[in-house]
Description:
single chain; Structural Genomics Hypothetical 15.5 Kd Protein In mrcA-pckA Intergenic Region, Chain A; 17% strand
Amino acid sequence: MHHARDMTQLLFTDSQVEVENPDKFRSVLAGSQRYYALSQEEQTRESLPLLELAVKSGLVASKCTCAGLFHLIEQLELMLCVLSAAQGRTLVEAGGLYVNGAKVTSVSQTAKAGDFIKGLLFLRAGKNKPVVVDREPPVLHCPSSTGTS
Length: 149
């Protein structure tokens, strides 16, 4: 119950853009539909198209989502996600896509490193569909297999 309350407080308050503790966002949202961690390739790019982020994060419904098979079909999904780009364009043209609380005004608008607030970017479709995009997702450490004998 506390987890749901924490998630609601983080996502639906106007203080999102004033991120004091980005790790709290990560710990509360990681693994939820409201959280999208950039891939290593995406982290190295100079800019990321906001429509692409909206599709990949699930903010804009995609006809190419196949739950449970993310890694096997990721590249195929990227090619097929063009289908949902029209929905994203419609959302932008209607004034319904926001980044860090500001209206996205162009379908070609991109997110640059400076747009991320302590590694986080807040995308929102309409009033009630937010997603946090994480440029600096936590690194999972695997136990070393080089044990000593």
